[in-house]
Structure formats: structure tokens, C-alpha cells
Amino acid sequence: MPTASEPGPQHVGTLWLLDLSEPSLIGPIPRVEVIFQLVGSEAIPLIADAMGLGSSEEVFKRLDAGKRCYIGNVNGVLATYGWVTFDKELIGELRLHIQLSPGEAYIWDCATLLEYRGLRLYPSLLWYIIGELRSQGLKRIWIGADADNIPSQVGMRLCGFHPIADFVQDYTLGLHSYWIRGHAGASEQHVEDARSAILGGRHKAGLAALSSVNPDSTTSLF
Predict the structure, then answer these.
(1) Are 165 and 183 in contact, with CB atoms under 8 Å apart?
(2) What residues pair up with 145 in beta bridges, in sequence order?
(3) Which DSSP helix (H) or strand (E) runs through 214?
(4) Contact partners, residue 204, CB within 8 Å, separation at least 6
(5) How large is the average pLDDT for residues 37-63?
(6) What percent of the chain has pLDDT above 70?
(7) Residue 137 in 3-state DSSP?
(8) Which residue would you say has higher pLDDT here, 7 or 129?
(9) Among 97, 95, 200, residue whose Cα is nearest residue 142
(10) Does pLDDT of 19 surpass 80?
(11) Structural domain boundaries of the chain?
């Protein structure tokens, strides 16, 4: 049991999934006129400024590595942005990587400038990205959200994403580890896919170790 000074297991975030083979929904409508587009090296200074970076180096590295940046312009101002990866990406808050399978994408590091929040730009940007990836023949899209980021979760649901796997942080004797726990209502196959994407072959060993203690366990430790 955790000591009085240890918080115990805490749900810190959730991995969501959109299956692009599912029927398309009617997407969210922004509350202001906005132009969405994929941008490249020509927009590096604008992106870096919107991200609050001191230099353009990080944006250049991302684009050079094949990551894509989609933005939304309101009256000529970059008001919202989001990044897309197709191979492997770091989930920075958890210090873990997600390894994508062929035909999958991961949407991450999305933000809307403070003065443009509340205008449904985030879900509308998500919807635009979904349409672009669907037209390119992708099959599935993953996205993550912190447990307390309710606005992002609302936007994801509006676009058809489903919560699949919860990340749980556990403190024991001053050390911490993370668990992947299937979200209530998620299919076993989707939860297994999420574990494989995050843990690779390690989740098999984790499940085997847990099942030797509790055959009904559905949670992986890493």
C-alpha cells in the first residue's frame, strides 16, 4: 500500500482511436471563418512563433523528419495548429513512444492561441485533418489527451474518436511506473492494439506476469 505521502495510482491520460472505415459523421462547425491547410517550410517562423518557441530549430527538425503540421488561419493569423506523425512519436508527458503500424497516424501537440479559444477551432482542425488523412487512404488515427483536459476530450468525441486505453501513474517507495488500462467500453482488440503500439513486445511479458498472480487481470505494467 502507498504511504501517507504517496498519492497512489492516478489516471493521467487516455489514448483515443478513430477507425476511418467507420461511417463519417457530420463534423463540427467553427464559430468563426477559418482557413485550414497543410503547411511546410515556408511557414516555419509562423509555427515557431505560435508555439512560443525561441527559435525555429524544433519546427525545422519535425518537418525534416517527415512530420506534418496543419494550421488554421483566422483573418490572416495562425490561430490553431496540430502535428501528425506516421511512424514513431514520443508521448512527451509519459516519456514513452507510440509505434504506428502502416496505415495509421498519430495526431499530437495541438493548440489554439488563447484569444481564439472557445470558437471550436480545435475540433474543426481535427475534422479537417481527418478528412485529409481519410482521402490519403489511411485506416486509423490515434490521439491522446490528459485526464483533466476536458475541452480536448469533447473535441475528440465530436470528431468520432473513442477512448481506448487509460494511462495510470503509480508511485511506490518514491518511484513511479505507468500502467495501461483498458477504458470502459473499449473492445479487447483495440486495447490490445494500444498496448502493442506503446509497449511493443513488452506487454506480452507484462500480461503473463500479471496473469500468474491474477488470471482475470486486464492491466499491463511498464
Answers:
(1) yes
(2) 14
(3) none
(4) none
(5) 98
(6) 84
(7) coil
(8) 129
(9) 97
(10) yes
(11) 10-221
Distance of CA 61 to the CA centre of its chain: 20
Structural contact between residues 105 and 89, judged by C-beta atoms closer than 8 angstroms: no
The side-by-side arrangement of strands in the sheet containing 140-146 is 35-39, 68-74, 77-85, 104-112, 140-146, 10-19, 162-172, 175-182, 219-221
> Do 104 and 164 contact (CB within 8 A), yes or no?
no
Q: DSSP H helical segments within the chain, as ranges?
A: 44-50, 57-64, 121-135, 150-158, 188-199, 202-213
The closest of 199, 142, 151, 122 to 16, measured between CA atoms, is 142
CATH number of 10-221: 3.40.630.30
CA 103 to chain centre: 16
From the centroid of its chain, how far is CA 117?
A: 19
CA 57 vs CA 67, 69, 109: distances in Å? 14, 15, 16
Please give the full DSSP string across 64-108, using - where no structure is assigned.
Answer: HTT-EEEEEEETTEEEEEEEEESSEEEEGGGTEEEEPPTTEEEEE
Question: At 44, is the secondary structure helix, strand, or coil?
Answer: helix
Predicted TM-score (pTM) of the model is 0.87
Contact 111, 146 (CB under 8 A): no
Amino acid occupying residue 183: H
> Which helix (DSSP H) or strand (DSSP E) does residue 7 occupy?
none
How far is 94 from 110, CA to CA, in rounded Å? 17
Cross-strand pairs, 105 = 141
Among the residue ranges 55-64, 86-95, 173-182, the one predicted with the least confidence is 173-182
